[in-house]
Every structure is written in C-alpha cells, then in structure tokens.
Amino acid sequence: MTASTNPKKRLASLDAFRGFTIAAMIIVNTPGSWKHVFPPLLHSHWNGITPTDLIFPFFLFIVGVSIVLAYSKKIVSQPRPILLKHLFKRAALLFIIGVILNLIGSEFTAIRLPGVLQRISITFLVGALLFIYTKRRTQFYIAGSLLLIYWALMKLVPVPEFGAGVLEPGKNLANYIDHLLIPFKMYEGSWDPEGILSTIPAIASTITGMFTGYIILSKESDMQKLVLIFVSGFLMLISGVVLGWFFPINKNLWTSSYVLYTSGLANLGLATIYYFMDVKAYLQWGKTGVIFGTNAITAYIIHYLLMMPLSQINIGSASIQAHFMNLFANMHVMPEIASLTWALLYTSLCFIPVWLLYQKKIFLKI
C-alpha cells in the first residue's frame, strides 16, 4: 500500500457511496450470531434478491465509475508501459490480499483462491484495459455480449448428468466448471459463488459503472447528468426485472438479470447521493460514508483482522462475541436485535482507525 496525504479533489458522492457500501458489508458480515439474523441481512438462498445481495455488485459498479474518473487524465499524461505496470501491479496485490484474508482463521491447506477482492481485482483489470484500448461504443457492445454469452452458456450448454438449462445449486454449468478447474477449497464445497464462469457477467457489472463515469465527466449540466444517470438506472432496473422472467435474478450465479437489476439500483443510489452532496453541497450528512470510502480497502482489511480476537479467541469460557450475546440473552433481549447490535458496534470499531487516518489526511491506496 502507499499513503497519500494530498489527494486530488474527489467526487464526494462516489466516496460516500463506496463508504456506505463498505459499512453495509461489514454489518452483514459480522452478526453476533449467524443463527439469529434478520432476513434482509442475509443473502438470498438462491433465486431472488435481498438488500445484502446488492452490496458486492455495488462495489463492482463503483470500481467502474472510479476507472473512468481516475484514468481519464492518466492515459494522456502517463506513458502506456508505466500505466499498464500500475494496473497489473494493483490487480495482483488485490488478488493476493484477498487470498491471504481468506486464510485468516483457517489452516494453510484450506486456501481458497476465489473471493471478493479477487473478483474485484479481475474486473478492475479487465475494465481498465478496456478503458485504455477500446472506445465507449465498443465497451457497450462488449458488456452486452458478455451478458448474452453468459445466458447462452448457462441455458444451452449441457452439464454431464443434468443436461442443459439447469440452474439449481451444484447442477449448473458455472458450478460444474468450478468443480473441474478451481483447486483447493471452494466456498460451497464443490463450487464457489466467486467462481470462474460467473466472473464473466461480473465484468459487465464493472462496465456499467464505467458508463456512469462517462456521464459524470461529460460537459452536460449537473441536472442533465442526473437525468441521464436516473434514466439509465431505471432502464437497467426494468430490463433486469424483465430478463429475470427468463433468467432468474441470482447472486450466486451472477446472472445477467442480476447484473442489470443491481446496476440499475446502483445508478439510482449514486445519482441520489450525487444530487445532495455534489450538486446541493449538503456534505455533512454523508461525512461518515466519505470517511469510510476514502480508505475502503483499509476498512475491509481491518474488519477481517478483528474477527479472530473478538470471535475466535476465548476469554475464560467464551469469546468476547459470545460473552456479548450471552449478556443480551440474560437480559431477555430479542436475539436478532442483539446480533445486529454486535454488528453495528463492530462496524463502529472498524470506523475508528479509518477516521483517524482521515483526520490526518492519510489515504492508503494499493
């Protein structure tokens, strides 16, 4: 990582959107007890969508927006070899950090190659290369082609023993390819939600963010930009719903309908924050998001590092987390409320170091 103490003027709404998303991710990742979680804070078991299922695609959308905002000047000012070296180095570091974080609390033999940061690294690299070497219209066609090709593969290519078009857990083409090609541990045993084939439409999620980045950098007025982002978001949202009738919205498979639906909501969410923070300059209400968002990777790493001392190392007969849940149980508090309270406190604890970094104007970047 490198530390910056004087970053260029940033888009406040994008930082806030990233920060609120990372905070939401920490909350849903760290309940006091997985046995007692409010349903909206859990992933959908299979088809369908919950608020928790929006978090990861929002990250990939934000990556796409950031690519356009960050590299528009760099492709003009920096020699291509230096720029490419930076891209590949950043992607490799993200991937390696993701693999290392997967090992926390596990034995080395339980290494898991796929993961959240790993998928972000791949989609970032592909999106950035497309931004450098292709035009906007080409990127649009590529995104559409990725969604169409993925749909065709999942619906038309037969899987041994199960045939073509089967989208059930462990019986579909994406899971079959994971089983064949991914070594070591997989999240679901024989397949992984961040697997190989489902990364294809995930790249399209990042490209949709790039389109929004182009709108933000355009010479249109702020209100025209807002209208364009809202309209494109609404159209993608409706397209995702309609496509979902034929290719169900599914986070585990990262279906094409899921890409359109979540990218549509991401556009609507970013546009709303953009209006209040960058157009109306109501900055204070989104300050917490900005603080999290300017050191998002740091917050993500911290939330992983805190898990072991708080939830796996015993003090007396139980861990700090277990003592907390027992305390609330003795007070006859609803266990789901206790579990959510722990998650909120955990997120607040993660906020402290990134707040200190923000106060010192230190922004850690890969």
From TrEMBL:
InterPro entries to which the protein is assigned, alphabetical: HGSNAT_cat
Residue ranges crossing the lipid bilayer per the database entry: 12-34, 54-71, 91-110, 116-133, 140-157, 196-217, 226-246, 258-277, 289-307, 337-358
Pfam family, one: HGSNAT_cat
Alphabetical keyword list: Membrane, Transmembrane, Transmembrane helix
Sequence ranges assigned to domain Heparan-alpha-glucosaminide N-acetyltransferase catalytic in this UniProt record: 10-220
PANTHER family attached to this UniProt entry: LD22376P
Name of protein: DUF1624 domain-containing protein
UniProt organism field: Ancylomarina longa
